[in-house]
Amino acid sequence: MTPPQAKTWSQRGRTPVVRVRGPPRRRVSIAALTCYKPGHRSRLTQRPRRDDGRRDGRKSFSWRDHRDLLTAAHQRLGGPIVLVRDNLNVHKVVGLREFTASRDWLTVCYLPPYAPDLNPVEGI
Prior knowledge:
- The chain has one domain (28-119).
- The protein is built from two helices and four strands, in the order ββαβαβ.
- The chain has helices at 63-77, 94-101, and strands spanning 28-35, 43-50, 81-85, 106-110.
- It starts with 27 loop residues before the first strand and ends in a 14-residue tail after the last strand.
C-alpha cells in the first residue's frame, strides 16, 4: 500500500519517516471485456488477478486466463462475440489462437500495431 504524498517537516539533517500499516504492496491486474449490443445496456465482464508475491510466480494473465474470460463472457451473454483486441503478445499465443479459431461463436479482429486514436489504452 503506497501512502498518499504530502508535505511534512522534520529537524534539519533528519529524514522524515512515515510508517504505513496494511498489506505489502502487490500488483493487481485486471482483464475485462466491455460488451455492447444495440438496444440493450452495456455489460462489463472482468477478472482480477492478484500477484501472489512469490518470486517465481506469474504476475500477469496467461492465455488460459484470457480463454476463461472469453468463455465466461459467452456463457453470460448467450450469443456470438466480436472481439476487438490490441496486439499484446499474450493475445497472439498459439494456444489462444487455436482456441479462438475453434469457436464458431467468436470472431476476432486485431487493431493496427500502434493506433492511439482507436485504442485508448495506448495512452496509459
